[in-house]
Amino acid sequence: MEFNKIIEKKSAEAWEIYIPNLSVDCVVFGFHDTTLKVLVTRLKDKDLWALPGGYVLKTENLKEAANRILYSRTGAENIYLQEFKVFSDLNRSGGVFDEFPDTLWNKQRFLSVAFYALVDFHQVNLVLDDISDACEWKSIEELPNFMMDHRSIFKKALTTLRKQLNHKPIGYNLLPEKFTMPELQKLYEIILAKKLNRGNFYRKMLRYDILIKLDESRKGGAHKAPDLYQFDLEKYEKALKEGLNNGW
């Protein structure tokens, strides 16, 4: 079924089940091959890409809606979600639905509550919905042509994530269960877009006391095998709630 017919059919259903004028958009970050990536979808029959998003059922709250939307796209559960901004500019649809009648659900004015999500790249199984013909990971350095205000939403999400690094830990949702300190440092450097001193980074991370050093090392390199670590989940969760000292 072509894009226009699908949208019209979904519009009739939406008026019955969703809260009017309220939507959710999600910026999903994953880390793979030393690259920070974002999950994006491409609309059918259009050269436009979008962040995963949707509407809020009359029977759920905002975070439940975000989790439902992300589960339908990724199959991942227990995702780290952080609400970071409400986007409310006039004419946010940016011409995407101009050809449709004004009664179309999607053409109404929507206030969008934006979340960013941190996920383990390897735990995600990408799923297409019926209005998209692609669902892919894109490097934050090579983003496609976004619809509406989705590029602004992405930029604000990245800025917010960078600020979080000054007072909260990250990594648990982005790295595999076992990782090396160089891998953790690389993640921080990519998010912050700057190099960090190796010795200072190691000392600071160990001083936070959220890591467990394992009696294992990463095999296969030409140099001395680096030690493996994992997060102490109890201390990690406490740091998320109470914050960390010192920034980057």
UniProtKB/TrEMBL annotation:
Signal peptide (from-to): none
Nudix hydrolase domain boundaries: 19-162
Name by which UniProt lists this protein: NUDIX domain-containing protein
Organism of derivation: Flavobacterium fructosi
